[in-house]
Amino acid sequence: MKNIASHLSGFWLITQGSNVYFPNQNLPFGTAEALGLQQHDALLIGEWENQPLFLVAEMANDAREWTYLYDLLTLPAAQFHLLNRGIELNHFYKTHQFCGKCGSKTAHTADEWAVQCQNEHCGYRAYPVICPSIIVAVRRGKEILLACHKRHADSKMYTTIAGFVEVGETFEQTVRREVLEETGVHVKNIQYFGSQPWAFPNSQMVGFLAEYDSGDIRLQEAEIADAQWFHCDEPLPNLPPQGTIALALINATLEICRTKDK
User: Fold this and answer.
1) For 114, 156, 198, 210, which has the most beta carbons within 10 A of its beta carbon?
2) What is the pLDDT of residues 155-200, one digit of tens each?
3) What is the pTM of this model?
């Protein structure tokens, strides 16, 4: 990032954690001078509505009316992904101000999104940390397995199974492990579905479809409040919002269930 020239004009992404400054249902647009941003640092990260999009370095204690990124899921996917990029980059720069190898001060690199140690005897370069997490919809005949996580107990929202990939583990191994750990169910025929950046603060959701193999539901009570099989032609519980890969997985699985054996 570098100091913003006052004449620069475009859209400006100002973030705080996983929150975005989104006045009047859009990012602020104009010159840096008009928006009072010329004393800050920024980085060009893409285009928004065919105009340059600049990421403003996160400012501590900035008093604004913030919008939670989760509440912007209904934006077009390309725009939602750009917001994720900005939030993840700010998180990376904020948490990598010192070298993880020697402890010296780092500086932003000019040629790529990275930081480099300023110690001439080290020079270690670090890149944005992306934490992969699987998310999987499991089907059994005309039924889908849905779980209510403890964090959703009040809203009674039921969703798919998800969890972080561990070191030395394939995505498919993570799918099998997470479903078994959280519900006691074994799965088979795992198929890749799609992915979604998830800047809370730096995850990447990698989606899969899977089929039931064996086992009865046995809850991981520390994380799961309830899990059930739901028939595709019967009323469903409260589901994740539009725009989430979780809902996309659920809808794809329900379509498979409804067309199965027709």
Assistant:
1) 210
2) 999 999 999 999 999 999 999 999 999 999 999 999 999 999 999 9
3) 0.91
